[in-house]
Amino acid sequence: MLRKLFWMNNKIISILETKDVNPTAVRIVVLELFFRHKHALSLQDLEEKLPWSDKASLFRTLKTFEQHEILHKIDDGHKAAKYALSVEHHDEHHHLVHPHFHCVKCHKTICLDPQKLHFSTVPKGFQITDYSLVIKGVCKDCV
Ligand SMILES: [Zn+2]
Ligand SMILES: [Zn+2]
């Protein structure tokens, strides 16, 4: 267990360093939470999971992570915006826009594989500036 925690912290610190983010205690704890949860987390989720921390510094941490492309923001239409990891998969696809799946029962949101997504439906000469696709349904834990 301790060994695993140690490995986890090292991984998180190295991600922060490669993204030019100073590895402060709150940043390490927040990023660790995102690695432990397979679904997206909102500011409120972070507050509930880290009751000792203050909301302002959690908010700043999310913004910093978003700016440094460690996390990306998702608007799944349910309450507040959620955030999910952008750095988990070290392949060329992780920066691509991708759809999300929102479970209407447990309200968890996950990232979906972008590889099967095409933008050929946008007419020639049109430019995409923003993109959001949320597929709603029931996840396998809630079926
Ligand atoms: Zn669910
Ligand atoms: Zn995503």
Number of strands: 6
The top level CATH class name:
Mainly Alpha
Helix content: 25-40%
| Computed structural class | alpha+beta
By CATH, the topology is Arc Repressor Mutant, subunit A
- The total tally of domains equals 1
CATH superfamily: Winged helix-like DNA-binding domain superfamily/Winged helix DNA-binding domain
Small-molecule components bound: zinc ion
State mean pLDDT (0 to 100 scale): 86
The count of helical stretches stands at 4
Q: Indicate the overall shape.
A: globular
| Rg on CA atoms, Å | 16 Å
How does this structure look, described?
By secondary structure, this protein is of the alpha+beta class. The chain has one domain: Arc Repressor Mutant, subunit A, CATH 1.10.10. Helices cover 34% and strands 15% of the residues. It contains 4 helices and 6 strands. A 3-stranded antiparallel beta sheet has the order 1-3-2. A 3-stranded mixed beta sheet has the order 5-4-6, with no helix packed on it. The radius of gyration is 16 Å and the shape is globular. One zinc ion binds at residues 103, 105-106, 108, 139, 141-142.
